[in-house]
Automatic annotation (TrEMBL):
Keywords: Membrane, Transmembrane, Transmembrane helix. It comes from Pararge aegeria aegeria. This is Jg14539 protein. The chain crosses the membrane at residues 77-97. The keyword Transmembrane applies.
Amino acid sequence: MKFKSKFNQSKLYFHYDVQWDKLKSVKWMNARASSNKAYVPTTVENVANVCTHALCVAPASLGARELLTRSVNAPQAIAAVVYGLALCLLFAVSTTFHSVCCCKSDT
């Protein structure tokens, strides 16, 4: 990307040129896997998975805390803790998995 700055009425504006040819040459996804074979995501997909799943850990923990504070009896509190931990661990393990896959990816 090329950044250009322009002064217009004492305000600084930044403009950048997107290199569309480079974006078109990026392999965003692989073709669908044939039967009895695992799908192998591209590096771009793994990076996107890491980012999106890592971003969900904080809202999951905040939601778990909110569920726990709204619980009024022991069964609700236990359910809130179990559900909240499961959701947080789901996103944390998924982030870790995709991070490891991203580091080992050859595509």
